[in-house]
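Dear colleagues,

As part of the handover before I leave the project, I'm documenting each prediction I ran so the next person doesn't have to rerun anything. This entry is a single chain, and its sequence is reproduced below.
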Amino acid sequence: SLLQEMLRSVQTLLRHEQRVGNQLRSLVSQAFHCQDAWAARLGSPVFQKIRLGEYFVELDKKFTTEYKASALDVDIFAQAASTPSECEQLEELLYKLRRTPHTAHTPTSTSHATVRALLGAVQHQDGGEQLHHLVKMLDDRINYGLFLDDYTTVLLLDRMLEEGKLVEGARVASHIMLQEEQVEGPGASLGNLACWRYCASGRTQEWYAEEEVPVDENPDEVIRIRAKGMVPNNYNDEHFDLREPSQILGKTLWYLNCDDDNLSRSLNALGLVLCGKGDQLLSGGKFMMVEEIGKQIVEVCNNEEVKVFIEGLEMVEMDVDKELLNKCTESLAAHEQQLVDEQTKQYKEWSKYRDSKLDEEYQLLVRKSRKEAITQTKEELASEEEKLFFFENFDTLEQEKEEKVQAWVKTFPRMNWSSKGYYRKGKYLPKPGQERKEARWEKREAKKGPAK
């Protein structure tokens, strides 16, 4: 009836307002950010004297000309970066580090510091695009090597949900699936909420930004490439090779919802439909479907058999956003303090590790400089000794000079490689009874015939 339709509209409006209010409120407490423990890293002597502008120029020179910049150098820059311009320089250094052998020694603190630096730069007066750059770097694992840990996953997803970044939040949540992280804990709960909010919004926002999509300038041009050796098969592992947004989102929902309750099974079904695996859904048996999720499945599904199966399930009414939000709150209440304690301990260990590595490099430089000084002193003493005992060692020096001249002459190219009569040797003379091979010019002249 008309009254029921009006009541449903009012309920939908109230849920939407509640959703907007939840998006503008941070789910983690202020203590979760560990500001004091994070700021303590700058107490190290190396950060007291560093000037990031000059340091970036020096590192860029090392990467460009000498290829000697280490992963520790980039880690120090990541720890000290804070402004948008410094974050842009950090992005360039991470890109160049991935093209050197030193990338194998990148500490885990580098990725953590990069995430925190870009999140902090957003609040700067010149900031604004850092979250987009961060998501792009996370997706481009080969060129940047940026990976999330348990703490940064929660920190980043909380910021995305707080600011209403729906597509960015879903893309960050997909890394839980790609890295095959645990499906229990606050990170998985926040990722589940981020994916659902993106689905509930109608997925109107593009998954990839415009500059992330490669554009073929000459689509009609045919480019032929000569392949040497074996041509690889067109194989898709359905994990790291996933590029379609619906498949990535669907597999993330499927991965994060493995429980047997109605909400988890409904979201799992939505994930299977988005992945294009309706057969797996049909073989899983019947269950109670959440009405709001069932409508989403019917809208996005192109398989009539799956639609009939979903419509035939028993529906249960539930506020999906509210239930997922409650799960996030409960999970954070149970695990937030543990994450804070572990991360505070990790900060101290990273500082100790960094200081020890710097001390090792300093000792190596001191040892190298001492060896160079000893070598130079020996050369100076040998030169001085040669001057003092020149006349006593005159005969020996003359003999050494002759030996050096002879060794030098031996380096000249050989002069007998085309000596006279070389091709009159036996192996070049025709043997009796052997027919001479007709030259090409003779064949050509015979083909032309006699001159006219």
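The two ends are 109 Å apart (CA to CA). The mean pLDDT is 84.

All the best with the project,
I.
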